[in-house]
Amino acid sequence: MSDQPFSCQQVVELVTDYLEDGLDPDQRLAFEQHVAVCPPCRGYFSQLRLIARTAGTLSEEDVPEPLRESLLDAFRDWTAGPRKS
Amino acid sequence: MKAYKFLARGGTGRFSDFRWPLPADGESGDWVESGGALEDCRAGVHACRPRQLLDWIDDELWEIELDGEIVEGNAMIVAQRGRLLARIEAWDDRAAKDFADACAWRARDFAFAGLRRLGLTEEAERLVETAELADMQTAAVAAFERSDGGAAELSGFAADAVSLVQGRRPEMWGEAVHPGFHKPEQTPGAIAANLAFVVAHTAGREAALAGTQADYDRGVEAERERQLAWLTERLDLRAG
Amino acid sequence: MLRVARGYGLGAATAEDVVQEAWLRVLRSLDRFEGRSSFRTWLFVILGNCARRRATTERRSVSLDSGGGTAEPAVAESRFFPADHPRWAGMWTTLVDSWDSIPEERLLAEETRKRFRASLDALPARYTVVFVLRDVEGWPSEDVCALLDLTPENQRVLLHRARVRIRSALEEYFEERG
User: Fold this and answer.
1) Based on the number of CB atoms within 10 Å of its own CB, is C69 exposed (0-12), middle (13-18) or buried (19 or more)?
2) What is the pTM of this model?
3) Which domain holds residue C154?
4) FRET label pair with B202: which of B20, B136, C76, C177, CA 20 to 30 Å apart?
5) φ and ψ of C39, to 5 deg
6) Structure confidence at residue C46 (pLDDT)
7) Cβ C153–A22 below 8 Å, yes or no?
């Protein structure tokens, strides 16, 4: 597949750069031309885009529980009295 | 000007994920305006001349009207605005499958040429005798195992082409599929796009092996012309 | 919060100081909280700033991956044909789903969110912060870069790594069920 500038292995590293408009025009075209003809890369591209999109539906409750708990604990400790340095 | 445009299922841009306003009740779809100047083909409505379509094959083919500033690149046309005129109904799942199959048979032709050149006439004949893609794959695998160099490469591509048509990966030749294996869906359009590219590349490799590396591009282009002719006839596309 | 501070490469005692300092700043600036994002993420941003400043002062290396480096690849090498393959060097050996056919109810279902949460939990803090601000909270990239003192390239790398790890975790989950 030597007439494609990007291999699949390279394409998977570039998906976010593409979505963030971080590729130059030649790279952008080469990326699109690859994804257009490569079913697995189409799938991968689609998956990453979906993650970026549905992440917005996560809520406060989806923050890892231990993190939330340690936040609340830290706040309780702090309000109990200033710590000595 | 009028041009063509491939879209993913649901009239959606493959890359933009934009849902195009579709024609309805005999009316064209609404005009879609792209904001700003058409720099570097990033902004703008993208469309294709027929020859350019081959690089962007997808689930749905549409006729599109373009207006405003229009920039013609090698890979595509970029315009300030566009509206969908009509769906090319002839490009359906059946057409996409037929096209992909036709590409796979072309891969057989290149393997045949490569085997003949190497004097492996028996393997070449067996390949040419087959009438079903699954049988062609079996013959191509046998030829692959008995040849080397360019003939093996082309035989390998022929066997791979059948795997790809079946929605499998290269070198998954005739392997039994595990029960319960979840095979990801590939649309017929996706498979067609893949086969068109792979077989054009195979044509280039055959030309390079028969001639010089400089013949690669010529081989690719010649195969693309055949693919375009296939699509033009099947879909009744305009010239140019 | 201690885990986040530790994520910046600070020792335990220093991390506690950083958390305390962050809380002080939080309480002092509560009136400036604009409500543009959740309190939680705003807190992480302040914590991140404190930790980074402290790490710089203490001359400890804060490894905000600037791209390249020795980070693991987005996808395991074994899923691609090797570089010396005659026909398919660097191409996928496996199929990859698009997840288009997964019904929305399943995508947003509790079990999926649980896996999403679990994969967030496993991320290094510097990936989590960028991912939460960009993809969960929807902050524009310029704002994230300004807040976290990142170049656009750095930010993209961190965002990519977060998304890639989450993808891996979800792929495993979706393929279990078939």
Assistant:
1) exposed
2) 0.83
3) 66-178
4) C76
5) -60, -35
6) 62
7) yes
